[in-house]
Specification:
This is Guanidinium exporter. It comes from Bradyrhizobium nanningense. One of its GO terms (molecular function) is transmembrane transporter activity. Keywords: Cell membrane, Membrane, Transmembrane, Transmembrane helix, Transport. This protein has 104 residues and is an all-alpha fold. It has one domain. The chain is built from four helices and no strands. The chain is flat and about 40 Å long. The chain starts with a helix and ends with a helix.
């Protein structure tokens, strides 16, 4: 169950990271509220997952999910470059997340 909670926390991290772009410096109400709610939810769920997962593993996976999702959506939504090196780097983060899951 802790891994599922951690995964949702990671999805919320992606939500707030992408949401920051849409807040336009927190000058737009709805995107700002959604972004702040996602931030709070992400931290709360991370805290719940930490009840049974090691902090180093959980934090690394949480940030990894956020990094992979945010980088991928940056490519898809904002036309950021999808170079071979960038995609390989994303793949390495995924490999790290999987590795941490396998040894925990």
């Amino acid at each position: 169950m802790a891994w599922s909670i951690l995964f949702v926390a990671g999805l919320l991290e992606i939500t707030w990271a992408i949401g920051l772009k849409y807040t336009e410096g927190f000058s737009r109400l709805v995107p700002s509220v959604v972004t702040l709610a996602a931030m709070a939810g992400s931290i709360v769920l991370l805290g719940l997952a930490l009840k049974s997962l090691p902090v180093g593993t959980a934090y690394a996976v949480w940030t990894g999910i956020g990094a992979v999702g945010t980088a991928t959506l940056g490519i898809v939504l904002f036309g950021e470059p999808a170079t071979a090196l960038r995609l390989a780097s994303i793949a390495l983060i995924i490999a790290g997340i999987v590795g941490l899951k396998l040894v925990t």
